[in-house]
Amino acid sequence: MSTITDPETKTVRTSDEEAKSSDHSLSTPIQRIGFWTAVALPFLYMPLLATGLNTPGQLQTFLILVAINMTALLIGHRHREKA
């Protein structure tokens, strides 16, 4: 394990902390988008359920939206989680 000194704050961080910091900077926006997509997406497929899934196209659209919603839930489930 190596240490890195931050010249601006004069603090010493380990390479593990540096890796977590760089991973967090990219994952946070992606998790935020995933979380809010998972929250908003049911509003798109609720009208399909209300009117019925009468045609194969409606059923396919519904299943695609549910699959996207599940993916968004997996991506965004750790958004704003306490460390």
Report on this structure.
The protein is mainly α. The chain has one domain. Helix content is 69%, strand content 10%. The protein is built from 3 helices and 2 strands; from the N terminus they run ββααα. It has helices spanning 15-40, 42-51, 56-76, and strands spanning 3-6, 11-14. It has a two-stranded antiparallel sheet with strand order 1-2. α1 packs antiparallel against α3 (56-76) and α2 packs antiparallel against α3. The model has no long low-confidence stretch (mean pLDDT 78).
Q: What is the oligomer described by this structure?
A: single chain
Q: What is the ordering of alpha helices and beta strands? A: EEHHH
Give the count of structural domains.
1
Strand percentage lies at 5-15%
Helix content: 55-70%
| Number of H/I helices | 3
Major sheet description: 2 strands, antiparallel
| Class from helix and strand fractions | mainly alpha
Poorly predicted residue ranges:
none
Could you say which overall geometry the principal axes of the C-alpha atoms support?
A: rod-shaped
Distance between the termini: 22 Å
Radius of gyration: 20 Å
State the total count of DSSP E strands: 2
Kindly report the spatial arrangement of strands forming the biggest sheet: 1-2
What is the overall pLDDT average? 78
Keywords: Membrane, Transmembrane, Transmembrane helix
InterPro entries: DUF8028 (IPR058341)
